[in-house]
Amino acid sequence: MNINPLRGVHVHAFALAALLVLGAHAQAQTDPLPSWNDSAAKSAIVEFVQAITTQGSPKFVPQAERIATFDQDGTLWVEHPMYSQVMYILESVPALVKAKPELAKGEPFKTVMSGNREAIAKLPEGDLIKVAGATLTGMPVETFQAAVANWIAEVRDPRWKKPYTDLTYLPMQEVLKYLRANGYKTYIVTGGGQDFVRVYSEATYGITPEQVVGSAGGTKFGYAKDGRPFLTKEPRLLLNDDKAGKPQGIHLMIGRRPVASFGNSDGDRQMLEYTKAGDGARLAMIVMHDDAKREYAYGPAKGLPATKVGAFTQAFYNEAMKNGFIVISMKDDWKRIFAFE
Amino acid sequence: MNINPLRGVHVHAFALAALLVLGAHAQAQTDPLPSWNDSAAKSAIVEFVQAITTQGSPKFVPQAERIATFDQDGTLWVEHPMYSQVMYILESVPALVKAKPELAKGEPFKTVMSGNREAIAKLPEGDLIKVAGATLTGMPVETFQAAVANWIAEVRDPRWKKPYTDLTYLPMQEVLKYLRANGYKTYIVTGGGQDFVRVYSEATYGITPEQVVGSAGGTKFGYAKDGRPFLTKEPRLLLNDDKAGKPQGIHLMIGRRPVASFGNSDGDRQMLEYTKAGDGARLAMIVMHDDAKREYAYGPAKGLPATKVGAFTQAFYNEAMKNGFIVISMKDDWKRIFAFE
Q1: Per residue in B90-112, pLDDT tens?
Q2: Of B214, B206, B209, B197, which Cα lies nearest the Cα of B152?
Q3: What pairs with residue A210 in β-bridges?
Q4: Which of B2, B5, B233, B279 has the highest CB neighbour number within 10 Å of its CB?
Q5: pTM of the entire structure?
Q6: Mutation test of the interface with chain A: which of B252, B268, B282, choosing the one with the most A Cβ atoms within 10 A?
Q7: How does pLDDT run across A151-160, given as a tens digit for each residue?
Q8: Euclidean distance between CA atoms B30 and B24, whole angstroms
Q9: Residues of A in contact with B16 (CB under 8 A)
Q10: Do A248 and B16 touch (CB under 8 A)?
């Protein structure tokens, strides 16, 4: 007589384990990137993920080191015709002027308040920084977060009449999920404001605030009248998270070199180079905006017109080809661009 | 005849699931903090974790918001008689002087090279910063990381003759594991160098580099002769992660207010206040060094002598009592201090 009460359970457990393995296998057969056409770009992603996660593969990477970094504007969501944070800055001016009416008498606030888009577009960069400083700093962190959350919920983009958070690229959302399902930590590494992006990153991309690296200013610690401590945003730049600032920001905030990076412009070049220069398997990809019909076409690569935002120069394109960066053509590689389509 | 091949499996799966639930329950009954005496401090931790993780509890906190921050020196490991990073800095001077012999002619390097501990201890802070700058910056990030890893592996502390990484407090290691098992992200928030601590944090505490916030300097991005990009450590301080710098560093690197914080000195005061000032359940705890026999006794609270490191002033102790910070007595609350005991 078998008196081991667990003996039967072991058999059952084995049967269940077999079923689970079969289930996992069945799931692996499901296309993780359904919004992608079956192109070289899609294959590159799938092959990279499989190589890195296969135990015993020469390209295997332990889970803790599976860091993937994504530029935001133009890589994860629409950046054209204007970065959404720039819209936020400009649209925050009326409330600022209401609180401090004397500002409206001088530049650049006078021009911004005029609503003259052409004149606003011509403001020199120094003036934009002045407006940014006045609208992004000087208030408690929580006040800023609430204002951004409010704006994000209310504002609609001029072309699709959707919240900006609906203008994320479905194929890239699939890449984020696919990588996370394979043990990757997915980070946003953006030239945009870290505090700005962190407000909506979790709901929009499933990326928690601590996995958002962006341009960041200092804060000041102080106490309210009731003794409660709080932080005030200061106009003191700690990290300009663009170009060389991207690998610097990655080192500061993550401390590991990514194994995969995704960008779309010259501002991402150093991040892609830094990623690609590590040992072992690496993936560096660039989203090219070549779909004038479904999104926008800009950047001089393949003869597209240059624009002020998201500069993707011919020199960058040439270097990308030389370094083995993989170009994603929105037109050819993406079956669907937005979830609302 | 039953032709559904899955029918039997479902029954087996249910049996296994029941077994797993029983197993989980049995595990929950196991003491998660065996190196702690059954005191108020231990109960405070267990009750806090249970309240925050119980669905439907008014104190429930969603998993993504379960952030816990830990000071390192004096909270997670021994800081007496000298911070280990200060030892690293001083012990790195001979190699530095060998490479640049002219340094040995001037101060403070002349005094450091003399080996006269009393004279070294009397060096003004500005001199120590000079030595720190010379030993912690100016080299590629990877060169620094390799040097620290090498030092950590080789050096032994003067009292226990153990690697510094063996001098972590077993009760705190248990707290780290207990919190992580309950969905917390555990961060180190240290006045020590972020790049220094990140070298050993994963092997020592199970804390990955991206969950180490510390004093941080800038880096410079450049290219080697072969075109490979690399980062050089620069003597430009971005974050002095001590006192008010701790909540500032938490905002910069994590972006969320912690629900639990652990410290041991005045340098942790603002972090504890910031944690405690959030809404909902909060836990703020202070390790008090009152065990001269098994570790050290220092700090003026309860009449202990003040020291240069880890200043735990009477004013801080009074404020802690007022704010509901919970003091952990090493002598009374910890059954065991080190794993090697």
Answers
A1: 999 999 999 999 999 999 999 99
A2: B197
A3: none
A4: B233
A5: 0.90
A6: B252
A7: 999 999 999 9
A8: 10
A9: 9, 12-13, 16
A10: no
